Amino acid sequence: MPEGSREIRIVSRKDISEVKWDSLVQKSENSIFMSRWYLDAVMPDWKALVLNDYQACLPVFISRKYGLKYCLQPLFIRECSVLGDESKFQELLNKLKDETSFFSLAMDVNVNDKNHIIEHSIHQLLPLNQDYESVYKMYSQNVKRSLRDFIKSKAELTDEQDSAVLIKMFRELKGKQFSHIDDEAYFRLSNLMMNAHSINASILRGVRLNGELVAICCFIRQDGKLLYLKGIVNSKGRNIGAMQAIFDSVIKDHTNEYKSLDFGGSNDEGLALFNKKFGAIDRKYLILKYNAAFWPLRRLVNSKIGIQ
């Protein structure tokens, strides 16, 4: 390839160089979401925009409907990253515009592009590269009180083995509230947790009260980072501070060993407040939206991806 040439191609999953991809992931701050095993579970037919010989890469999830090609952020991946040379992000984004009619993509980059609608979202991150006592001091009085209630309850923290129990409990308690999560999404979540377990990258922590499972959470661990993936608690668990106890136990187990705990989080004030009570801080990321669909589908697309 001539010096200075720029070739961006769309590479199907089966044709991606796993060695080169993994090498880039190891250098990424977003290595969990960008790992092949994670992408394979939540979007089996993913592709990648690849610049030259893996100089820069971006995983994408291109679909087709009503004659339009489009790219939407999949469930369970909060944000994507440019692997490799991050300065090539704009070139990759221009290629995505050429290949699709519209997209909505969450990214951990800074970009100033008037050709896109740019929104901000947040999640919460707790630094763990310190001793547990220092982290505990950042807990709110509410969390500390919940931990004392948990001790009084005589409930037991457990390491669970069956991730299907989490999904079953979540569907029973939250299924109606999260109606956008369909059977296919639960199937992919199940695959994700099983993939993580198969490479010893998961923590499935539960709370049992008199033998009954009252709360359960799944965390992903990789490259010195922890990610809270999904959890659920019933009314008995809430009354004894079960979720606070689970998070505290995971934090206690991994301080000084891991860099951070990513709480996930969202713009939901209730979720953000729970996370911040452990000392977690807000971290921003971008959501880029682009719509070049033709009339009369343009208005429908705007509604679908949230463009006013």
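The record above closes out task 2.4. Task 2.5 opens with a second protein, given below.
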Amino acid sequence: MTILELKDIYLHFGGIMALNGVSLDVREGEIFAIIGPNGAGKTSIFNCISGLYTPDRGKILFKGREINKLSPYKRAQLGLARSFQNIELFKGMTVIDNLMLGRHIHMNTNLLTGGIWFGKARGEEIRHREVVEEIIDFLEIQDIRKKAVGTLAYGLQKRVELGRALALDPQVLLLDEPMAGMNAEETEDMARFILDINEERDVTVVLIEHDMGVVMDISDRICTLDFGERLSLGKPEEVQADPKVIAAYLGDEEEI
């Protein structure tokens, strides 16, 4: 079953065509990777899906519903969450507080009741904090839960950002280069968490990543972009053997 679909998406910035008629479908329950050289349009696709960009033409469908005109907030309420290529956390706040921000779309208290923090408001915050604590355990960051995010190592900050996205209870999780800047051990841990999120938490994952070893190992299907156009879409072994992909991104055939 298709959970997310892009139909003939066009996006330009002045004279630059960022996306040129891109179509793809993401199936429920899979890990779907988008790869391509720098400037191929990968993050532009994520920005269109999450509502930061509005395509010039084409449709974006989530569970069969067109979401082109929905705000990013409404898309998050439907079950779309994302992380960013550059970490977008509140560095002066603790890990717990950053993750609690991911629960805001599920909270029903208003400014008055939240400020008083009594009765229903208090009970609601306690319930949401329990969800956050479960995510902290899942991501194995118990020891840093009360530390300010800005004091943490880069790899841990990436893990916290993943946790904040999970706090939204997404059905589809968009991960923009989650392994970027990590060492081998951190990359292995992040790949394990992505697999566990997909398998244990039943979350569909759409992944942008330059680490081809990770992409080929954990992805069910891969879409390759180049200069805003789709080159190929298929299983890892199919994409890896595609001459167009080899020429555009993966290098000489002898090196594969």
